[in-house]
């Protein structure tokens, strides 16, 4: 590379241990999230309910990919954990919540959902 007197070299940038090429952004590349596995023949049924405002704040710990019409979120609020399901349709999104459980039970249910063993 030939530099003219008025130019200064671009500093070397490292992202995740790899050198970033000049002109590349420091933001991570876009990626898809986790996809839910196909539904298994034998599965648990999740009892979906209308959402109720139990807490002022809800924290989303994990979520499935935004590229699908149905999105699942593993949420925590008020010391309990639950799964939120959002179905995006032509009439707008429809939101339901699974049962509010202690974290260990909710995380097990989340894994079953991801593996197609619960819906």
Automatic annotation (TrEMBL):
Protein name: Uncharacterized protein
Record organism: Microtetraspora glauca
Taxonomy of the source species: Bacteria, Bacillati, Actinomycetota, Actinomycetes, Streptosporangiales
